[in-house]
Amino acid sequence: MEGGKGLRAAPFPPLHTFEPLRRTALNRIFAAFYTCAIIVLLYRHAQALLNYSTTSLLYFSINFSLLISDLVLAFMWAAAQAYRVRPIRRKEFPENLKRVIKEEDYPGLDVFICTADPFKEPPMNVVNTALSLMAYDYPPEKISVYVSDDGGSALTLFAFTEAAKFASYWLPFCREQNIMERSPEVYFASNNLSWSPEFEKIKMMYENMKAKVEHVVDKGEISDEYIIDNPHREAFKKWTKDFTRTDHPAVIQVILDRSEDKDVSGNYLPNLIYVSREKSKTSPHHFKAGALNALGPNYVGSGCFFQRRVFFGGPSEMVPPEFDELNSNNVVDKPIKSEEILEFAHHVAGCNYENQTKWGYLNGFRYGSLVEDYYTGFRLQCEGWKSLFCNPKRAAFLGDNPITIIDLLGQCKRWCIGLLEVAFSSKYNTLIYGSRSMGIFMGLAYSHYAFWPLWCIPVIHYSFLPQLALLNKVSILPKTSEPWFFLYVFLFLGAYGQDCLDFVLDGGSIKRWWNAQRMWMIRGLTCYVFGSVEYLLKSLGISTHGFTLTSKVQDDEQSKRYWQGTFEFGVPSPLFVPLTMAAIINLFSFLYGLKEFLVGSNMDGGLFLPMVLSGLIVLNCLPIYGAIALRNDKGKMPTQVTVIATFLSAALSSFAYLIFNQ
């Protein structure tokens, strides 16, 4: 057309779209009914407390404790509704990226991998993570992979120097064969592989590298024979045996330089840089958050990417760093191995660099909580930054998790302490500050996680109090003939039913949901309790145990039991004592209630609900009974724990008998 009249520019194809889920309306209707039921329940508790003059102090205490428990349950349920008010499903179109932006204009991608102990986090696991990242379907000249080793271990550095050699073969292999699983360990373990000479060659190279690295780690030192042809041998010679102690200097090694190093097909390799920041007993190092701030690149940790600018203040007001070189817009125009760049990198990785600066408070990852990812994300959202959640059918990230129950609970206990540090922060409280900054629903969403440890209050109450009352034929829950009975049934089935429905509709199974709620109960009796107590002691200035790294090491027997779905106990930990006590008391309570029911006793006296509750907890505790009495492997419940828990259960039951029958 003349002059271009009537022509419209073709819109760019979308990179993602979303649509509201059809269950939104049902969620809101159910929330309204459930809220009314909660109000009625609280009215019942208030009525019972107001009748204190006609009841004993014992029943007042029982009703007050049930009120507190139900208030916590009500708050946690209300906070969870923030996720159900307007649920959406997003669909991603990564194939459209090249139609939206030219490949040469792709943004640079800095990937950060944290590790701290080669004996708890095997270097080959970390190496596989790095190799899969370096093999991204992304221009390699745009990728930089940083390995942060807070353990300062020569073993980890050695593993990555070996991985760099293998990468020069692995990356071309992935491109030529169009490999989807780009972690070598995952790829070679797959059953859907076709044999070829190239496949056999690359697999042999990987197995040799793996054997070499694991031999060095098992030995605990690096022999000269392994570093004769290693380009970083001078760095290893300077490394002393006691380098992993609390005090050590910063070490930065450029293992691969994308401006120099090429793979066997002639293409440049991504940057691969090893960083171990300076450590000193006299300077706080802020754990993982400090390690992340030692670089200020984009962060890939909990399955997310950050734009670099978010670490320098809100969208409308930038908080500049101390040096222009650290500015989010700064472009480095010098070689990465230049003396000037490396000298500045060592300075930033030093212990004293952050002193009297804004890092960790207004810039970078935020200090003040052991859950630095959660706390930083919360603060960034409060500053005005927006996030976008993508959940493609093929998982974008796969994480490592502990396979023993003690490691899992230890990790969760650490999270509990960090979450409570955020929840009860005087300035950045999720409920008040968060709701004011982001709106009530986002504030509730963050609060649901921040107050996680408080689950221990209702879990402990409902795992012991009704059961001890049942053993003494005392009614503290409604009779089956009372209208309140149906209220309790609705509240219980409603909460569990909605949770199960959400789980199944999102692709889970009934079995996985049952295991998830079983783990919720276990955490409520263990790490939530101990984490809350440790946070309280820490708040009072009483010293507690320091940071403990979660072990990712797996031996063959543990792995076998893990994949069979068998709980791994094995360690005589105090964490297992309240869990075993709950298993014992609920078993006796259920058997006693069942006996009373079978002999024809009147179960309408308020004892039916406690018996059903005991039965459900017994079902959840089946793996614990097996670990106590039926197993002989190393993962069984330690005898020491069983004996202590039995003694304490007997003492608690005797005390309850005296109280209820006074």
Automatic annotation (TrEMBL):
* GO biological process, alphabetically ordered: cell wall organization; cellulose biosynthetic process
* Catalytic residues, chain numbering: 150, 373
Compartments reported by the entry: Endomembrane system
Tell me a Gene Ontology molecular-function term this record carries: cellulose synthase (UDP-forming) activity
Which residues participate in UDP-alpha-D-glucose binding? 120-121, 150
Q: Which GO terms describe its cellular component?
A: endomembrane system; membrane
Pfam families named among the record's database cross-references:
Cellulose_synt
Alphabetical UniProt keywords: Cell wall biogenesis/degradation, Glycosyltransferase, Membrane, Transferase, Transmembrane, Transmembrane helix
Determine the domain of life of the protein's source: Eukaryota
Annotated TM spans: 25-46, 58-80, 446-465, 485-508, 520-537, 575-594, 606-628, 640-660
Q: What is its main location?
A: membrane
Q: Is the keyword Cell wall biogenesis/degradation in the record?
A: yes
User: Which PANTHER family does the record cross-reference, listed alphabetically?
Assistant: X-BOX TRANSCRIPTION FACTOR-RELATED
Entry protein name: Cellulose synthase
